[in-house]
Amino acid sequence: QKAASLLLSNITRCHLSHKDLVPGSSYVARVRARPVRASGFSGQYSEWSTEVLWETPEGGLQPRNLRCLFNGADRLTCSWEVKKAIVTSVLFGLFFRATPASAEEECSPVHEKALPHVPYVVQSCEIPVSNSSSQSQYHVSARAKTEEKLIEAYKNIKVLPPANVSVTVTENQEYELRWIKHTLQYNFITQRYQVEYWQNNQYEKVSLRKCRS
């Protein structure tokens, strides 16, 4: 997973707000340093520090302010609010029963709109109404969804990284990189490689090439 990154100057502490973290989750952080270019010096990043781990407390996962409005004809529009930090990692759905004896159904699609100046987003969904009599009652709930996936092993192979990377100068003054590939159990599975390179005093990659074994 991609890490969130903060760039700080000439300080030795950093505050992470609870509104930017997902409740009931495990987090890892590490720090590295480099000379400030404005000082007239330049150089590379240090190695990463040792990692620090912590757990955020449970709570705040439940949606709030669930409300539904009927248009008087054929549609029941429901909306609820969830924390912005949560929606990137937790899926929420709207579930309903047209009658107490009906099977529960999931409303789709769910729309999303950010709320200004508050750490919440509004999610909404429209339920089609087939019986709009005064006796009709809908049981509605908004809650976190359990995501299920079918994982096919042969489509999710992650090989070990190449080893013993080396570079030599060829006769025509080109630079040849070589490495030893990780051998898979099945020889008919070929591997593709991505090569990144950059100037030694620059952190950003300036070019990349893809190779196939």
Automatic annotation (TrEMBL):
Bilayer topology annotation: Single-pass membrane protein
Localization (cell): Membrane
Main location: membrane
Bilayer-spanning residue ranges: none
GO molecular function ontology, one term from the record: cytokine receptor activity
InterPro entries linked: FN3_sf, Ig-like_fold
Organism of derivation: Fulmarus glacialis (Northern fulmar)
Gene Ontology CC terms, in alphabetical order: external side of plasma membrane
Keyword terms: Disulfide bond, Membrane, Receptor, Signal, Transmembrane, Transmembrane helix
Protein name: Cytokine receptor common subunit beta
GO biological process terms, semicolon-separated: immunoglobulin mediated immune response
